[in-house]
Amino acid sequence: MMYEGTNISVNLDADGIAELCFSASGSVNKFDRETLEQFDAATQAISANGAVKGVLVYSDKPAFIVGADITEFTDMFAMPEAEVLAWVKASTDIFDRFEDLHVPTIAAVTGFALGGGCEMALACDLRIADTTARLGLPEVKLGIMPGFGGTVRLPRIVGADNALTWMTTGVDRKAEKALHEGAVDAVVAPEHLITSAKTMLLSAITGKLDWQKRRAAKLAPLNLGQNEAIMGFNTAKGMVFAKAGKHYPAPHMMVNTVEAASGLGRSEAMALENKGFVQLTKTDAAKAQIGIFLADQMVKAKGKKQAKSATKDVSQNAVLGAGIMGGGIAYQGAVKGIPTIMKDIAAAALDLGLSTAAGILESGMKRGRVNAKKMASTLNNITPTLDYSAIQHADLVIEAVVENPKVKGIVLAETEQHVADDAIITSNTSTISIDLLADSLQKPERFCGMHFFNPVHKMPLVEIIRGAKTTEETIAAVVATTLRMGKTPIVVNDCPGFFVNRVLFPYFAGFSKLVLDGADFVTVDKIMEKEFGWPMGPAFLLDVVGIDTADHAAGVMADGFPERMQKVTNDPVTLMYQANRLGQKNGVGFYDHGKDKRGRPSKTPAPVAIDMIAQHAATKTEFSHEEVIARLMIPMANESIRCLEEGIIASPAEADMALLFGTGFPPFRGGIFRYIDTMGLANFVELADKYAHLGAIYQVTDGVREMAAAGKSYFTA
């Protein structure tokens, strides 16, 4: 054995090939600090051994290397800029030393080679992949850019245009596509990977393959003409701005770095990468996006742990209510292989539910994501019925009828009479208290909320609501089923609106108050979309949700929290509802909705809505961007804090993921608690106090005031 560490070993075979194996003790290989140190030690051991004729890099796991250890990033990136720069330069020096070995090198890639794993392969002279391989540089999703030489090596291997597409989108490549683009030199079956890699390496050792020429190209400036460079980089900048906008600095930094480094050799180009990488680590976007990744990992791990404790196996679902929502829920179970009974009291509703599922599948077929076999199997998994007897064997029932507590109560009581004693019953209510609905059942311990978001097939979140009498066995089984349905479960405790809607309606109330104080709703939408980063401004979102749905839910919230959420007098939402302006569902709301020339949904500010609001609002007033954002986001932040303090949501991380997955909260802000932390609790309290006169939704809790005074934050407290 030439070198042996806990994560890397090097063995010299009879042909003089040094077999450098990544073999971490965990389930995957990743570049943490310890592995980087061992990689350098292994490289030096190879360099010092005159018997080595070539180097084969491979993994003893199903995946090559999944990237850097992101759990180390938070502490590392908090170091002073000079220290972060020293660390990243030392790291890239390790990869450079490996690239400079006096013998040819090859990477044998299986499974994922992402981030640092992909950069490891790029540092080799040759790359061979098996058919399971996927290569990519996804750092942009963390708000940073490749830091182990990816911005330098990839453009010199696949060309600047291809490289920038890889890096600015973060999308990985299957083996065949990577071969087509020149990132790998061959693709073979998994069982032939190592022998084929050695054969290719021996060809380089014997001079049949010119590995020196390949290496020289990676060390030299990019081979670009002046006009080609100008056109290519300007096009890339335009495409990145159109997609990423101004809130995501990482893709812009990548383009600028590759452009600036295009005329430089490796060492000068690497210095630019080091500098750009460090600058990105200090941005709020990077902190937020890394925070999202870590929160997502925590939520997934918690869900898997809860699912493992499930004692009931769910082999058949039943959905009660076959409208658009019910059809979407039925589709989601069916497409994941769960046979689903879809029941309604009207044949027309069943037709709508089936057409909803079929429409989703047809759209997938047009995009090439669904084949005829998948469509047939999914639809065959849905059994429509008008008869309660059809649900007698269901293991889990999802009630998705109209959002009315009396109607839901009747349906739930009837359901309990037709299912097995151990069947789980859930309600897809969006606002109604689970404990209130549980009063309709004889066995409330097997009942909980299962709140899907519309459109079901696109929205990742399912809020699972624990009632006062819900057992943990019930929660575990519902979490397990939610995961099987391909959704992210977040368990919350019961209250009107639960978590997502409870914090969303103060945001809407802040919007209504602002509009009545003279703000133009179109301007407010633009500010919240362009400046804050929401996918939709509040007026447009209300139109999409449905004005009738929003007005009804506001009434539920007012009953649940009368001290804070009483309906706003002359609320523009209520005005729209009274005028039967229901939003997208009937084509008129704050906006008039239609289709453009290409048949895509369009919207124009509705003069009728503007005139209607003007009759009840103050004189039109211009508000600064900062004030618009503050008046909408402070109420959401305050209510989120109350939910955390009351135990409705278990952690800031789960709250952030719930809003990210349930409402489209801007990822570059990291979620509501990351947003508060980024602002600083003392600054948040000061800002909220400025608007405290506007009402209870602007008034901070004693708890956050105490945290601010103590200098604490939500992710370090």
From TrEMBL:
Pfam families, per the entry: 3HCDH, 3HCDH_N, ECH_1
UniProt keyword terms in alphabetical order: Fatty acid metabolism, Isomerase, Lipid degradation, Lipid metabolism, Lyase, Multifunctional enzyme, NAD, Oxidoreductase
GO biological process entries: fatty acid beta-oxidation
Catalyzed reactions per annotation: a (3S)-3-hydroxyacyl-CoA + NAD(+) = a 3-oxoacyl-CoA + NADH + H(+)
GO cellular component, one term: fatty acid beta-oxidation multienzyme complex
MF GO annotations: 3-hydroxybutyryl-CoA epimerase activity; delta(3)-delta(2)-enoyl-CoA isomerase activity; enoyl-CoA hydratase activity; long-chain (3S)-3-hydroxyacyl-CoA dehydrogenase (NAD+) activity; NAD+ binding
Entry-linked InterPro entries: 3-OHacyl-CoA_DH_CS (IPR006180), 3-OHacyl-CoA_DH_NAD-bd (IPR006176), 3HC_DH_C (IPR006108), 6-PGluconate_DH-like_C_sf (IPR008927), ClpP/crotonase-like_dom_sf (IPR029045), Enoyl-CoA_hyd/isom_CS (IPR018376), Enoyl-CoA_hydra/iso (IPR001753), FA_oxidation_alpha_subunit (IPR050136)
Listed PANTHER family: TRIFUNCTIONAL ENZYME SUBUNIT ALPHA, TRIFUNCTIONAL ENZYME SUBUNIT ALPHA, MITOCHONDRIAL
Protein name per its UniProtKB record: enoyl-CoA hydratase
Species in which this protein is naturally found: Opacimonas viscosa
Gene transcribed to yield this protein: fadB
